[in-house]
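Reopening this one. Same input as before:
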Amino acid sequence: MLWAGLFLLQTNLSGAETDVRRDASVIAVEKAMPSVVNIGTLEIIERHDAYESLLREFWGPFYRRRGPDTQYSLGSGVVIDEEGIVLTNFHVVGRASKIWVRFSEGAEFEAKPIVGTTQSDVALLRILAKPGTKFTPVKFAADDDLLLGETVLALGNPFGLGGSVSRGILSSKSRRPAPEGEPLYVQDWLQTDAAINPGNSGGPLINLRGELIGINVAVGQGQGIGFAIPVKRLSEALSEIYRPEIVEGNWFGALVKAGRLPLTVTAVDAKSPAELAGLRPGDQIMQLNGTAPRGFVEFARTLINWGEAQDLSLVIQRNTDRRTLKLRMVSFAALIKKRLGLSLQELTHELAKNLGLSQMSGLLVAGVDKASPAAAAALQPGMLISGINQQPTDILEAAGKMIGQKNKGDRVRLSVIVPRRIRNLTRFEEGAVDLTVR
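Same output, byte for byte:
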């Protein structure tokens, strides 16, 4: 009986043992892989940037010219918000005219670019899915929670064939302070010996907790060397590019640091809606419209979708004081029109080409209000505003801030390019006009 009991106990214990194959790496992959997507397009727009030579050097076969309507698989990405916001490399999607994403289980959706930047090589896409569709977002690691020598996993979905995983160690961290206005390059990236293949570019580099510590960039020149943009740089890029000023042209007026909760205000524009409402650097965002934000992306998405027609409610913590602030965003286009009587629009590549302004940069005059400062200065639709107060500007955000920070009665000088049509030729004349802000 004793031997039978011992045998039964041993059998039960062995039956309760965990599968030895399900180690920390497998569990981390199970957590993160539902967030990983393949990114593809039907057409590629030719362009050249700082990454072009690097891509052609290592991935030349994938850059050969192909016929029209050819399916290209450009790289990978990772979902960072349950509403379907995808983070990837700018060089993965910057050349795409039509984009779709495919998950490892086969689900496929069209996606729309939101915003991107060549300096940080970061871009965001929005998955075009049915209302109410929820996706699994990856969890971000803390900015500086990196251990040299720790095991890391490079995930991707190359060519839409399913999830891809490679394992290595963190060989080196970012090697220099954040550069001012310079593109990120090797000195700024994480280095790992985890294999990063062409289809994995834009996919997540994760730790054994399944947390995002970087975005895969490229394979290095040496064998067993790969690079990834570190999570700290990703957070900095998100704080700069994913905000209502960039995405929708609405002035909120405060920079909020992307990272761990509570979210913290790092800068406030002078005379912006945020400053006028009483928001200050160092304030912690506790609630937005009655709800505690679960992360930066959700907070920014709420601001972007809110628009300018309704009041926002912010509960902030300032030292030991908690207070509620009310503010209403204003669109830069409406602000400029109100103060100068001038309707401006950004000059897209297609618009510049159609108007013969391909070699020009600035803001196109789309309309002029009667009895306005702009009308008094004889400005007309079709002219190009190339600068304000001798500061070059080609985006509404910069123009709107400069005009919005002026007092009533202040004067601003606009640098103007006037197209003159002579038979089949267009001649451009440059000049300047002074307007009084109303």
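So the earlier flakiness isn't reproducible anymore. For the record, The chain has a mean pLDDT of 86.
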